[in-house]
Amino acid sequence: MIKMKNDMIAVIYLQPDQVRMRIVERPDFKIINNVQSGSFQIDTNGPTANYMANMEAIVDNIEGFKELARDYQVKNILFYGAREDLDEVTASYVRDQLEVRTGLTIEWLNNNQLMAELMSHIMTTLPDFKKMSKHCLYLLSIGLDSTTLAFFHHDQFEASWEIDLGGAHIHQLVERLNQTTTNPNEIIQDYINSKLEYLEPELKRHKKTVLLIQNSATLNARYIPKHEHLAKLPRDQFQDTLKHMLLTSDNYLQRYLGVNQQFPYALPNYLVIARMARIIAPQSIYVTDLSTMGGLSTGIAVDNTDDQQKRDNMIRTSADNMARRYGVDPSHSDFVTRFALQLFDQLKPIHRLNNHYRLLLEIAAKIDDIGNFINQEGHYRHSAYILEANPLIGLSDQDNRIIAEVARYHSAEVPTVSQSHYRHLDDDLQLPVAKLAAILRLVDALDDSRQQKISQLRLKLKGQRLVIKATANDDLVLEKWSFSKKSQLFTDVFGITPVLKEKEGR
User: Fold this and answer.
1) I need a surface site. Which of 138, 256, 342, 396 has the fewest CB within 10 A?
2) Where in this chain does the record put each Ppx/GppA phosphatase C-terminal domain (predicted)?
3) 3-class SS at 180?
């Protein structure tokens, strides 16, 4: 029997190509054991996340992981899975089958959540990150289904782009081209160029730019020393290897590169890195073996406050970027965000929502008006479908949907059973959406003129009335009219009638 460690947790992470488990000891997150399965089969003609076809292998490995966890007397096992391109219905089927066969309930994480975990982990764990990102740093993470590029400046996350360039997808294209042409490499390079070309105008070139490559097993194996997590990539060697890959056979390259498990994705990875380096023109290129599993086992799974703060700031930054992109009035957005959070904090005994909903309200307040970019008439509906098509980094599918629905109902429409979008929300989401929309709707009315006349709010609950005293530097005739129209939802949801009283400012 292995000696029991204090306060240990096991994290299982399911990906389309393998499943891993890490046992960590808290509070220092020391890795006690780290195991992984062999490679699963990925259908070259179907979705990347083909968990159904690999169910037997997945279950067998998880049962082995559970036995190992028992040897360590670990009682707390958390199970996460990469959602990838899995549709919602299939994801529910896979979840149910895994729960029946393993007794564990999987929590699906979308790519935006996984990237936020990875980035916060790298920022926290990599000792050189602050120095490397002092000027400009691009983090390129090459996944199976897609590739993500993130930009950092002065140790702070500033932007990210999800690119339809996953290693498995490119490999699938190579397989199909091999059946029709003797040399598909030129076509593959053109394909990669077409996916990256639109990004070029958005990317900044600076003399001291750093490119950091993550999730490239081939580069990790060749360049990162044992017990290290970072290595500088020699450009000459990289270019020479790429030339070999384009000209020589797979068998030779497999021996030359010294990797087996991810070999099919080696050429796609090299080609994406080479093209990205030409676009960014970095001064230095580094590789890191820090992984999403590291982010899960030291972040979300153990409620790491530092990592959570970094993730929340990424979410806020993404929302701010979206607001700028769609021309949101920053003064109005700041006003609404400020007072919406004040109402949320002071009305906690009434709404009884936790601080995660506070974050969702904050994000909704920042971007509820993005629909004006399309048309001011019905802008709330436009805001909703823009948000549905542009999920924010770090948020779950459910969180993104809540924000989209709160934006939909912040202005004219109200969340009732007659509204199809509201009617089709899960039952446990309907009330939180209505509560957040009621608060946001009330505050939005207080700046209906878009002149930020109000400098201070004071709230007092008197029986079934919520008295809001507003200190203003101008008359609030328009705001009072709008308030009287928009306050009904608040009354319907909370059973309390808001009353606006004006107090003249100095």
Assistant:
1) 256
2) 317-465
3) coil
Give the CA angle between residues 372, 388, 52 to the nearest 5°: 170
Q: What is the dihedral of CA 125, 126, 131, 133, to 10 degrees?
A: -90
**3 state SS of 26:** coil
Whether 262 has a pLDDT exceeding 50, the answer reads no
Is residue 331's pLDDT more than 60?
Answer: yes
For residue 80, give both structure tokens. 């996460």
Contact criterion met (CB below 8 Å) for 65 and 78: no
Encoded tokens for 89: 């219905």
- Whether the per-residue pLDDT at 385 is higher than 60: the answer is yes
Name the H helices within 206-354.
217-223, 235-247, 250-257, 266-280, 292-298, 305-325, 330-346, 348-351
Q: How far apart are CA 91 and CA 102, in angstroms?
A: 16
Tell me if 377 sits within 8 A of 330, measured CB to CB. no
Question: Tokens standing for 77?
Answer: 């096992």
pLDDT number for residue 505: 61
Quick one: tokens of 421? 């979008």
Predicted confidence (pLDDT) at residue 261 exceeds the cutoff of 50: no
Structure tokens at 246: 């384009």
How far apart CA 483 and CA 346 sit, in angstroms, is: 19
φ and ψ at residue 108, rounded to 5 degrees: -75, 135
281 DSSP assignment: -
137 beta partners: 152, 210
Three-state SS for 498? strand
CA distances from 395 to 110, 124, 228, 370 (A): 8, 20, 31, 18
The phi, psi pair for 374, rounded to 5°, reads: -90, -55
pLDDT tens-digit series, residues 413-455 = 777 666 777 766 778 889 999 999 999 999 999 999 999 999 9
Strand-pair partners of 13: 20, 80
Cβ–Cβ < 8 Å for 155, 129: yes
Dig out the tokens for 351 from the structure: 């709404």
Strand partners, 454: 472
CB 451 within 8 A of CB 423: no
pTM summary value? 0.88
Q: Which residues neighbour 280 within 8 Å (Cβ) at sequence distance 6 or greater?
A: 138, 203, 205, 209, 211
pLDDT exceeds cutoff 60 at 5: no
CA distance 189 to 181: 14
SS3 sequence of 44-93: CCCCCCCCCCCHHHHHHHHHHHHHHHHHCCCCCEEEEEECCCCCHHHHHH
Domains along the sequence of the chain with CATH: 8-109 (3.30.420.40), 112-297 (3.30.420.150), 304-447 (1.10.3210.10)
Q: Are the CB atoms for 471 and 500 separated by under 8 Å?
A: no
Q: Where are the alpha helices (DSSP H) in 299-426?
A: 305-325, 330-346, 348-351, 355-367, 379-389, 397-408, 420-423
